Amino acid sequence: MPGSIALEARGLYKSFGGVLAIADVSFTVRQGSLTAAIGPNGAGKTTLFNLVTNLYPPDAGSASCFGIDLIGRAPDAVATLGLVRTFQTARAFPGMTVLENVLVGAHLRVRAKPWLQALWLRAVRDEERAIRRQAEALLEVVGLADRRDDAAISLPLGAQKLLEVIRALMARPRLLLLDEPAAGLNDVETAELARLLLAVRAAGVTLMVVEHNMSLVMGIADDIIVLDLGRVIATGAPAAVQADPRVIEAYLGREAEIA
Amino acid sequence: MREAVEIAIGGVLAGSVFALVAVGFTLVYSVMGVPNLAQGAFVVLGALTMYSLETHLRWPLLAAVPGAAVVAALVGGATERLVIRPARRRLPTSGMLILMVGLLTLFEGASLVIWGSQPYSIPAFSGERPAAIAGIRIPTQGFWILGATAASVVLLWYILARTVFGKALRACAENPVAASLMGVPVSRMTLFAFAAGAALGAIGGEVLGPITSIEFDTGRFFTNSGFIAFALGGMGSFFGAVVGGVGLGLVQQLTAGYISSLFSNTLTLVLLLAVLIWRPGGLLGGGGVRREDVREFIGASALPAYRLTGRAAWSLAILGAGIVAVLPALLGGTGLTGSLVITGILFIGVLGLDLLMGYTGQVSLGHAGFMAVGGYTAAILATRLGVAPLVATGAGIALSLAVALVLSLVTARLRGLYLALATLAFGLLVDSVTVGLTGVTGGPSGLVGIPSFSLGGYAFASATSTYYLVWGVAGALVIVLANLARSGYGRALRATRADQTAARALGIRVPRYKVSVFLISAALAALAGSLYAFHFHFLSPEMVSTSRSLEMITMLVLGGEGTLVGPLIGVALLTLLPAAVQPLATYKTLAEGLVLVLIMVYLPAGIFGGGLSGLQRLASRITHLSPHAGTASSG
Ligand SMILES: Nc1ncnc2c1ncn2[C@@H]1O[C@H](COP(=O)(O)OP(=O)(O)OP(=O)(O)O)[C@@H](O)[C@H]1O
Ligand SMILES: [Mg+2]
């Protein structure tokens, strides 16, 4: 149902040694929206993703996805709920081809049991053929179809990030978290990525994107969450956030204040 | 009372040498993050080199002792330069560990060639007559041992704590990247660590030599004990290593003296397993935390991206099946058929290992332990209780599965290095039980009178019939595993090997896959163990010992991990070559070690994997040349 909440965080805290990486962070991501999380380097954006996907537990606070509690679930169980993420540094699987990488994304949708796979029965073959077709179609979309049989890590970094996005899409997520998907992409590829993200949103997938590329963010985001020093300092529509003095200050640095 | 004190003194003396080896472990581990499993070989190298210097070159004791230590340091340094350094840039931790296993085998093989297989006893430094203090007899050599250990440890402590060099070394241990950014010559530190570690081990061997006997493969024992001391002490703490070494010596001697040496060995290994599992930070210290979202380093060249698919795979399969079918007829009942049976049996075991290591990236250094569990169970049931071989084999597999399940559940939290070391401890534990439980296993001399394998009244008594049985099973397994490998299950395994965190983010239940693949590999090893026993009508501990585990790894890596059929090349080479060329037997260990080291450094994808990607590159160059040449000239 439209208007409901895809992701909700309440009072999240996380510190590493003495560094308070996330402090009292609460926010919501509306279902069907494309929400961007922005903030200066070290603001805690990646940590936020890591907390929500349970790479490590928060010191305090809660998070839920479509009303289901996330904290305490293993990262793979989080994915089972329909929440899939990508990583800031490209993480194509080495030792696998481009196509195989994309196929891994379909893992949760493979129905055939391993003992059936071992016998390569008809049902297995049909299923494999179907996900292979979907993977090839997605590779076509991002222009990697002719490199499908190359080793994934032989791709340029930008292409590896696109590969990671479509790999995540193969899981048919309900909520997709992307950590700096445009890093390392040139202008043409960035435009392609923007089109892809909008298409994904149009298909009904909720997106939360961490991104430093402001023109991309302002162009496609419905909502923006601004983090600075581990705290949420502003939320709202792109235009409102852009005009917010606290956001400008966070980005321009605090020297202005001292002077 | 006097006896107890004398035993305790013996424990402290042996423990001092363990401590020296453990300190060597600590040095290398601090700068590299990988324990040098070849460390124990330097104990042997030191002792035997000193022996040769004294008896053949007639060097006086005072020259031979430092002389042999210098030789060991040179060998250690050369190893770092020639092997470790080039490998380090390309191999992940698991690969480095296998490389170290190769080095240990290489050194053992070299010692066998140089010094032969007889045990050496080195004359005591200052006469054989023990000193007596308050009625307690102490071998005078004991003072040399304690003195040498104390002097070495104090010298090392001084270098580490009081010199600029030591400070740099410690910085490099804490954070090699930061250290190298700050201008610390990290490579020189690794060189020092290896050379100094080797010299420490050698000194230990020289002073201990007179009160024990040393032969070419005693190094294993010191690697094991030194490593246990190092793990008990907390992996990376010098103080912990010394305490761990002396403590281990004491516990071993006291339990061996008062209970039994079987109990002593078993107790130490159980202790090691327990520490690895519950206190990976050691008994004294605590472990550090690591960033989970940062990717572990993966040596990309070690992972084959290209596999045979479609028509190429089918052609190869049909060709292979054809060769297997006609081979016995061609050989006409020569002894080679028997060697081919062994090849097939080991291939079954290595297939499981490939699924575990090649596909999933989990290193098992004790896989022959499962061969032993399966083989002994089946053999004992069939021989003593007359159980049908098929049922006995099933029971062996079931027991092996149960053991594997327990082991994989308790080690589930362990990653890479720790899992490898826990499996090593498991393998050694099985070794000590098969040797020690004489009543059940027949002890070192083995179990005899095992019947042939039989199915519904048909006994596979001849080599040829066993050949078809074994290769039929191996062929079916290849097909089933290849099917698994190319579908969702196989992709999940490979994703797990490549990047666990990213795999989990896509919903792959990594722990579950690790357990299931561990079970499959244990079952296949148990099957291989049973077939082995039924084929030979005999089973002895060394047929399924840790040496066998390491040999299986060599076979796997040589053929090509993660390719299923590639390892067959490795198995065949290492089984058939020594059988065909008997006079080379002395060189077998040396050759195995050398091959493993060379492959790890220069061809981590193995013969099959390397060959395949070479062909792939060639093919893509040819196809790319023609069309692209046109575009380039027009553009
Ligand atoms: N596992 C960790 N251990 C120690 N410190 C950490 C860890 N993860 C994050 N931090 C620290 O927490 C703070 C926030 O880091 P985070 O990576 O979340 O920032 P970010 O907003 O993603 O920055 P960037 O834009 O550079 O990616 C930083 O100071 C970082 O050093
Ligand atoms: Mg970040």
CATH topology of the largest domain in chain B: ABC transporter involved in vitamin B12 uptake, BtuC
CATH class of chain A: Alpha Beta
Class of the largest domain in chain B in CATH?
Answer: Mainly Alpha
Largest sheet of chain B: 2 strands, antiparallel
Proportion of residues in β-strands of chain A: 15-25%
| Structural class by secondary-structure content of chain B | mainly alpha
Shape, principal axes of CA atoms of chain B: globular
GO cellular component, one term (chain B): plasma membrane
Subcellular location (chain B): Cell membrane
GO molecular function (chain B): branched-chain amino acid transmembrane transporter activity
Pfam family, one (chain B): BPD_transp_2
Give a brief description.
By secondary structure, chain A is an alpha/beta fold. Chain A is built from eleven helices and ten strands.
Note down, in words, how this protein is organized:
The complex is a heterodimer of chains A (259) and B (635). Chain A is an alpha/beta fold. Chain A contains eleven helices and ten strands. In chain A, the strands form two sheets. Chain A has a six-stranded mixed sheet, sandwiched between helices. In chain A, strands 2-1-4-5 form a four-stranded antiparallel sheet, with helices on one face. In chain A, a hairpin with a 2-residue loop joins β1 (5-16) and β2 (19-30). In chain A, α3 (98-104) packs parallel to α6 (157-169). Chain A starts with a strand and ends with a helix. Mean pLDDT of chain A is 89; it is low at 255-259. Chain B has two domains: 2-125 and 138-278, Orthogonal Bundle (ABC transporter involved in vitamin B12 uptake, BtuC); 316-590, ABC transporter involved in vitamin B12 uptake, BtuC (Orthogonal Bundle). Chain B has 25 helices and six strands. Chain B has a two-stranded antiparallel ribbon with strand order 1-2. In chain B, α2 (39-55) packs antiparallel against α3 (61-88) and α10 (238-258) runs antiparallel to α11. The longest helix of chain B has 31 residues, at 2-32. The N and C termini of chain B lie far apart (93 Å). The chains are: A alpha/beta (259), B mainly alpha (635). Chains A and B meet through α2, α3 and α4 of A and α18, α19 and α20 of B. The complex binds adenosine-5'-triphosphate (ATP) and magnesium ion. Adenosine-5'-triphosphate binds next to β2 and α1 of chain A. Chain B: It is a multi-pass membrane protein. Chain B: Keywords: Cell membrane, Membrane, Transmembrane, Transmembrane helix. Chain B: InterPro entries: ABC_transp_permease, LivM-like.
